[in-house]
Every structure is written in C-alpha cells, then in structure tokens.
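Need the bound structure for glutamine, inputs here:
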Amino acid sequence: MLEKLTVSEALDKLHKKEVSSRELTEAALARISAVDQEVKAFMTVIGDQALAEAATLDARRLNGETVGPLAGIPMALKDNMCTKGIRTTCSSKILHNFIPPYDATVTTLLKNAGAVLLGKTNLDEFAMGSSTENSAYFTTRNPWDTRCVPGGSSGGSAAAVIADEAFFALGSDTGGSIRQPAAFCGVVGMKPTYGRVSRYGLIAFASSLDQIGPFTKDVRDCALVLNSIAAHDPGDSTSANVETPDYTSFLNGNVKGMKIGVPREYFAEGIESEVKDAVRKALDVLVSLGAEAEEISLPHTDYGIPVYYLIAPAEASSNLARYDGVQYGFRAEADNLLDMYKKTRSQGFGTEVKRRIMLGTYALSSGYYDAYYLKALKVRTLIKQDFDQAFEKYDVILTPTAPTVAFQAGTVENLLTMYLNDICTIPANLAGLPAVSIPCGFAGKLPVGLQLIGKPFDEGTILRAAYAYEQNSGIERKKPGLGKGGAA
Ligand code: GLN
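Answer from helper R.:
Posting the output first, comments after.
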C-alpha cells in the first residue's frame, strides 16, 4: 500500500528510514503493472532505470550525503517534456521515434531534487484537446469510471496520480490542460503564473500561454513540488527573474479576512447544476473560516474561447512548422523534397493538429491578420484588464474548474462542445495568472473541481486558500476502485 502515500508522507518515512526509495519505486511499478492496462496513463515506463536511480539515492541517503528535497519520490512527466535519451512523442506519430538529446529544465530540476522518473504519460497530440482522445496512440481512461475520459490534454498525468501509479506528475496547461483533468480525476492541479516555471524543453504548443505545473494528491504536495520546479531559467527568455518563496509556508489554514471574488459569468448557463452546488458549498466552507465573499463581474469572460482559438492556433501554426521530416521524427518517402514535406506532415499529424495549423495559418495570413489575430490580441488585453481590476479589491477569484464532470469517451461529437469545456480555465492563461484546481466533492461517482485564481506570482495565496479548504472541507479522501472495471 506504499503507493497510496502522499509525497509528504513518503518523504517523512524516507527521512525516518522506515522505507527506502527502492521500495517506493517497486510499489509504484507494481501498481502500474496491476492497473495501467485499464487506465492507460503511460506512454513509456522506464522501470529498470527508475529502480537503479532509486537504489543510488538510497545509498546516498545511507551514506549521510545531502540529498534533494524530493529525493527518492517516484513521479511521471507528461510526454511533451524532453527527457534525455528517453523517447518523447508528444503523443504524435510525427515524433514516434524522437529521443531528445537534452533534458527540459523541469526534468533537470526534478532530477536535482532527487525525484525518480517512472515514465512518460499520455496526452492529446501536441496538447490539443480536453480528453486525451486526440492522442495518436490510445485514450487514457478515468480511474473513477473507465468508460469516461480523464480530461485533457494532460489526462495521463492526472489519471496516473489518482490511480496511485505515481506519487506526483507534471503536466502543461495552455488553456486548462492541468486544471480540467485535475478536476475530472479528483486531484490537485496547478497552473503557475506564466513565467514562473521554465518552458525550456517543453514541446511548444502556444508559447504565450503554455505553462508547466504539478498534479498531486493534496495541496501540501502541490506546494512541495512547486518549490522544486519554480525557478528563473536563463534558457527561457520568458522565465521570470523573481524570488521563489517556500510555498509550504503558506499552508497555515488562515483565511480570515481573505477577500474572494465570485464572478457571476462562471455560474451562468452551461455549467451543470451539480458542479455549481459543489463549488458553492466549498465557498461556504471558506466563508465559515472567516473569508469574505462577494459576487463580481468579469464582463469579457465570454470572449475567452474565441480569442483563445485564434491566438493558440496562430502560435501553434508557427511552432509546428519545424516538423518537416528533416529535423525531427517521422519522415515520409517521396520523390522530391516538396512532396516529402507534404507527405510527412499530412501523414504525421492527426486531424485536430492539422485543423489548428490551418486555423492559425488563416488567422495570420496577410488579408486576415488585422481582422482576426490583431483583434484577438486586443480582446486578450480586455480580459486581462477585467482581472487587474478585480484584483485591486480581491485576493482570489473562485470559480468551477470545468462546466461538467468527466464525460464518456467517444460521446462528444460536436467540436464546439469539446472546446467549451475550457470556458472556466482559458481566461487565466490569456491573462497569465496562477490558478489551481482542487477536489470539492462528487457528482454521482465523478469528482468535481474548484478553481482558485490568484494575482501574478501570488501562488502562495491560492495555496493558502486551497489548503484551508482542503483541511476543513469534510470531504473524505476516497480512491477509485480499480481492478473491478473501474467502478468506485
Ligand atoms: N483543451 C484546450 C485545447 O484543446 C487546452 C489544451 C491545453 O491546455 N494544452 O487547446
């Protein structure tokens, strides 16, 4: 049962020498063998390497050497973060054989912290999607009900954590890809402030929106992992050179006088009533602890999705131009260079990726640039200004994370319905703000997520509120009943 421990519980046992990293790693690998056929969270598992790494860390600890703050903790990375010598597919056919010659900065930081990499997790191809159904390989299943999706695009990482296949995992969030799967799977998922965590070595989707963050079993673990990955990186020109506090210092349970803004636009039509109820109950808990809540308005919220679906595809069309069959991955056979480019890209990319490349190329074309891309940038500024104004008065903004709970795989036929899933998460990406999703109960047997959005670089305050809620929510820490068809 070692795999069920949180990161902080496991660290405690490691410090007391009650358990070794090798035992933790064996427990995680045994769990992967037992349930991953059902969950399908992992693209790649590197069991032998993980066990060897764990043994090295155990020996160092035994010798009294100083080890990093996460030393010996087994974890997983979304398969769009580069890992030297370990295949990194981005869940795309075009990168089916890509073995990065370098580590992403987060990979290096976690190695330095002593975390043990178990493997790489499934995602929607190039992180485009909300269900992992766009993976070119397979769909990950929601451990609470394996007929349902785990959310996306970081569905593999979210599912791995709630299924106890990894003690924590990293994901990336461009429009909600950490928070929405965290909500669907009932784990904690944070998108830090844009620039807080380095994007060096993260395979780019939309560079002005992408941000890496943790999936964890509880709020304390989220703070612990953030401590190890938040750092200025000269290798990423958009990485912010700001102080990194000890995020665990915010976990004091005190929300007295904290001002919470509750935007009415996030409780409008289209948000399931069971989701609204669970989120409102969570707000009542925070108010009972001394926080002050008020309804507010963020009037440009409705423009979030249209603006995102101009800016993100525009940036993607540019970022994905590099996959030409020459530099990386898959190359199609052809008689001449031009045909090789065309065949490589038409065979290597999936439907959704091609759709986004076409949308983005169109929005950036000379005749339409002003009407679409430039207009979208202007409206992005208005969305950011809504938040700036709200944060003059409020410390955090509280909303649902997603409009619904997890849906059944293969049932969302309308593309717009899929896109609308990110209605509550996209605005924080457009404004560059930190936001966390934490579990706030269940609708039937599926988890509901609560989102807390903070001021730029004020991850501490949203962690403080999240922790206070978690400690007082009265929600029991349930686990999905895997191994019997996924039913809880
Ligand atoms: N679901 C959104 C999309 O399809 C967001 C994805 C993400 O955050 N990477 O683009």
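Comments: The pocket of glutamine is lined by residues 127-130, 153, 173-177, 205, 312, 422 (CB under 6 Å). The longest helix spans residues 369-393.
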